Amino acid sequence: MPLSSSIVLCTFNGVRYLPMLWESLLAQSRRPDEIVVRDDASTDGTPGLLETLREAAETRGISVRVLLNEKNVGYVSNFEAALRDASGDVLFLCDQDDVWHSHKVARQLEEFEKHSELLFLCGDARRVDTSGADLGRSLFATLRVTRAELKKIHRGHGFEVLLRRNLATGATAALRHSLLQNSLPFPACWIHDEWLAIMAGAFDGFDCLDQALVDYRQHDANQLGMPERSLGEKWDGLRNTGASMIDNLLERGEVLLKRLRETRGVKAEYLALAAEKLDHLGIRRSLRGTPWRRLRDTLSETLNGRYRRYSSGWHSLLRDLIRRS
Predict the structure, then answer these.
(1) What whole-number distance in Å separates Cα of residue 283 and Cα of residue 298?
(2) How many Å apart are CA 279 and CA 262, to the nearest integer?
């Protein structure tokens, strides 16, 4: 039996790009059953535009629900509420300023129908500028996703990859509705897409497609985006990122381990990996004192392989050696 689908769209002051996105949603070769929209207290006429767009979708047999927040709650809380409102077997996360390729829904639903264990599926994207022109480097290329990482994910070891770093971008993602049972509510210190991805990974249900199914628009108003950084900006980021970054990672790790321990069916192996990452981050957080002590502790974490398994390898090592606090 075919799976039903819901597109979950969150909007905020989206008048400029919404019509192009909506046109691409209605042009899907396999149309969604439902579009759920939550507007986060827009002030630019977005709610009125959504009513017009709703009519265009309903004439094509697509059910549309438009819900308006009385006050701005932020994009993570808005997505949580919108996901709770959706009824499809598979839920597609959607940003207001992108353009979907015509086979996106069909291609991702095909994977969910083929693999019953699949819980979360993301993919690559074509990065474009405000006018829709190709920026030349895809999302995965910008993230420097390696063949080894992709191979590990495809073999069912996505949790280990995601524990090291997030590779899931919500604009490309779809998830099985059942994933929400163990994933909600979203923790305050996590972004919704990376939280959903790692929770899916904890049940061996995370995978990604190596192909681009979305034009991912980059502009100044992006909540996150994936901009290119110069060498100078990267160097400044290394030097000026202090212990507060490690504090944030520790908080996230503690929240993850607590949720995993409270959730039935998580492998003991994954609980151990999450706990070991916390230990590694605790050592990184304590790197203070003389240069000799800092060198000693970073060398120890390098030799035991934990910089490679739980941080960004030599990049994190260098950051810890030269950071100012």
Answers:
(1) 9
(2) 20
Beta bridge partners of 99: 215
* Domains of the chain in sequence order: 5-217 (3.90.550.10), 231-322 (no CATH)
- Other CB atoms within a 10 A radius of the CB of residue 113 amount to 14
Strand order in the sheet with 99-100: 63-68, 34-39, 5-11, 90-95, 174-176, 120-128, 206-217, 99-100
Query: Contact at 8 Å (CB) between 32 and 3?
Result: no
Residue in the block written with tokens 């909600």 = 184
Amino acid at 260: L
Is residue 73 within 8 A of residue 186, CB to CB? The reply is: no
What distance in Å separates the CA atoms of residue 263 and residue 1, rounded to the nearest whole number?
29
Task: Convert the pLDDT of each residue in 214-269 to its tens digit.
Answer: 999 998 765 555 555 555 555 555 455 556 889 999 999 999 999 999 999 999 99
pTM of the complete model: 0.91
